[in-house]
Amino acid sequence: RIRTNSKQTVLATALRSTTLAAGGLFLALGILVSCAPQGDSARDAAGLTANAEDAAGALAMANTATADAVSAATDYKPWIESAVLIAREALRDTVIGSGVVQGHQEAVLRARSGGIIQFVNFELGDKLDTGAVLMTLDDGIPSLSLRQLQQQYQAAQSDLRAKEDLFAQGNLSQNQLTQARASLSGLETQLAQIQRELGNTRITTPIAGQIAEKAAGLVVGDQVSPNQVLGRIVDLSRLRVSIALGQRQVFLVRKGQLAEIRIPTTTGSILAKGVVQAVSAGADQRTGSWTAVVEFANPAPERIRAGLSAEVRISDNKADTSLVVPDAALVFRDGKYYVFVVDPNAPEGVRLNEVRLLDQIGDRVAVEALDTTINLEGARVLVSGLTRAQNNL
């Protein structure tokens, strides 16, 4: 407090001196002009000019004294106390993206063959095991065809055995035996095909999960076509989120990295830990971005559904480090960047160091000193009073 009051006294005194000097200059000029008689010689005019120059010189000296007093009166202590540490850290150590929650496995349910619906056994949200029957179609025609082919196949088997006996006795040609075998093989192929068609009348789930979609109009008696979409089933025991990566981000993400997932809800956020499962080898031709897939166990199976939005944070503990300062610490002067570094050995307790900007994210800037002999790591830089400091240093 004593130091500050003293400096304020010095500053006030300097300002009064400047004011008095300026007033004296103009008073002297006024007296000289008023006292000079009309028609004075050139010598009198020269004397008047010399007196004015002496007064101007006195004013300039007073202004210099004032500037020195202002500089001396500047108290850097509050600025130094608020200085921040220059730390070496990774500027780009976290990749943040967003995407849509998907099931670890998802399957589209389709009718493999056409037919008339006999039975529907699923609804939205149902939890089903692998192989559970969803629908059955009319199997009258395939069943009839199967019985006919089975009879033909049995007859062909008996015929082949008889011809093999005849061939062994020499009473049948090789060509006749080959034809009998070919006929039986053809029936086997037809039998396998009709068995598949009969199996296709029972539509089952290829994976365990919950029904996420169900086609409209699936009622008993309705006709379905081959390959018609009936619904979608999702395995929600494990989830995945795909996020887009820019060119700078893709270098920071690799398979096996840990990730944090946040799923917002009406009552807060659901958090989960995951792992980067895959990173695309090439950019999407439409968007120019790369894709990273993050998988995680479902932390709330009764609440989380496919299609929810999620935020993903992927941390890179191997990211490159650099010296990081707040952007508030930067001073731009004559096309160059500087920082005011706290230095107890400097006359004012701070010194000005030129730096090069390497990278910036938000209000955090990576820098390096142009003078390689100066180590800025661990030093402190001013973040306030920079404008006044520029004027006084």
User: Shape, please?
Assistant: elongated
- What Rg is obtained from the alpha carbons, in whole angstroms? 45 Å
Secondary-structure-based class equals alpha+beta
List segments where confidence is low: pLDDT < 50 over at least 5 consecutive residues: 1-15, 17-22, 24-46, 62-73
Major β-sheet annotation: 6 strands, antiparallel
> How many β-strand stretches?
20
Beta content comes to 25-35%
The largest sheet has its strands arranged as 2-15-19-18-17-16
Helices, by number, come to: 7
Approximate helicity band: 25-40%
Concise synopsis of the structure shown:
With 393 residues, this protein is α+β, with helices and mostly antiparallel strands. It has helices spanning 2-35, 42-73, 77-81, 140-169, 174-199, 247-250, 386-392, and strands at 84-85, 87-89, 94-110, 115-120, 127-128, 133-137, 202-204, 209-214, 223-224, 229-245, 258-265, 268-279, 290-297, 309-315, 322-326, 330-333, 336-342, 350-361, 364-369, 380-381.
